[in-house]
Design a protein that fits this description.
Elements lengths: L4 E6 L4 H10 L4 E7 L3 H11 L3 E3 L2 H6 L5 E4 L6 H10 L3 E5 L6 H14 L3 E4 L6 H12 L6 E10 L16 H17 L5 E8 L6 E10 L2 E8 L1 E6 L1 E4 L4 E4 L11 E6 L9 E6 L4 H15 L7 H20 L3 E2 L3
Length: 335
């Protein structure tokens, strides 16, 4: 059997606590270390998750000769600096989304990857979840028609002033945190880049980050209409409407890993749902899949699940959303 890739994690809180157990279930992935700027926190997390090594700094993890790859779940503004430091130490990097704060930062990261010859990818775990692979397959089969409207509401409630999602200089706000998924998933489904973007934002008067952003992404073969919010009820669902039918993904971004998920396909027979077909997707953990595919790319060669070129395209659209909201006008993207 292929030797597992040895990983270290930078940071012991937040998303890391969800992702680490999933990584540990992988066939190609082994978590050998966890780092925190507080050694006691790193030791506590190492003990909790059964990780052999605890580091009192991120630098120590990066310098460890036994570590081959680094997972970075740090706040957004730290993604590129620490990804570059890890790459320059010869480590492969899987970095949480959004991988950069801007398209320019993403280009800097691409240059670092090309210079160091390591693999760097963005952790958009949705791209490899079977429910999205199946939804894309159905859409591209033509079953619901050739032209599509993707409708994507995504919200949760968080008014904690200490939370990184509410700190402007850390890259907080709804668009960067969850609106990026609407951009990513619509691009993934349609296999195209939007030509025009129109958006509006409402900012929290205290935090000065967007708490509600809505937008229209205009693609050659359809549109994505999305709203993302950090001060509304918790909700996430995607509807894909075509001329002949409809696809629904019930829990778009955070599907359960301990039970099956469902993709609904409606032929539009009536509004009561008599034409709905339910396809059950066997239970799986999207974070395990993501880590294993990245580890396989390290061991066997080939692309990582979300390469930086895709990250750059995604960030270009996100920047257009911000620009449109500021200018109160439609933004035309260069081809």
């Amino acid at each position: 059997m292929t030797q597992k890739v040895k990983w270290a994690v930078l940071g012991a809180a937040g998303i890391a606590r969800r992702v680490i157990p999933a990584m540990q279930q992988g066939d190609y992935t082994e978590v050998v270390g966890i780092a925190s700027r507080d050694l006691s926190k790193a030791k506590a997390a190492a003990a909790e998750f059964g990780i052999p090594k605890a580091y009192g700094s991120y630098e120590e993890a990066i310098r460890d000769g036994d570590v081959e790859a680094i997972y970075i779940p740090l706040p957004n503004h730290l993604h590129v600096p620490w990804s570059i430091r890890a790459a320059e130490a010869g480590k492969h990097v899987l970095c949480e989304k959004p991988v950069a704060m801007s398209a320019a930062e993403c280009r800097t990261l691409i240059a670092a990857r090309d210079r160091t010859k390591v693999k760097i990818g963005e952790a958009f775990m949705v791209r490899t979840h079977p429910q999205w692979l199946r939804a894309r397959e159905i859409l591209r089969s033509g079953e619901i028609g050739p032209f599509a409207l993707v409708i994507f509401p995504f919200s949760y409630f968080n008014v904690d002033p200490e939370n990184v999602r509410n700190i402007s200089e850390y890259g907080g706000g709804a668009m960067m945190d969850i609106g990026c998924y609407a951009v990513q998933i619509s691009r993934f489904l349609l296999g195209e880049e939007p030509a025009r973007v129109t958006a509006r934002m409402d900012k929290d008067p205290q935090f000065q980050v967007d708490r509600l952003t809505s937008g229209i992404l205009e693609y050659p073969s359809g549109q994505c209409v999305f709203s993302c919010a950090t001060q509304l009820v918790r909700y996430q669902r995607v509807q894909i409407l075509g001329s002949k039918g409809r696809i629904e993904v019930e829990i778009a971004v955070n599907p359960p890993f301990d039970r099956p998920t469902r993709v609904l396909v409606d032929n539009g027979a009536d509004l009561l749902g008599s034409g709905v077909r339910v396809e059950e997707i066997p239970r799986c953990d999207q974070f395990t899949i993501q880590a294993d595919l990245f580890s396989q790319a390290i061991r066997e060669g080939g692309p990582v699940p979300t390469p930086l070129e895709d990250s750059l395209a995604n960030m270009t659209v996100i920047e257009a959303v911000f620009e449109s909201a500021r200018a109160q006008a439609t933004v035309h993207l260069r081809k």
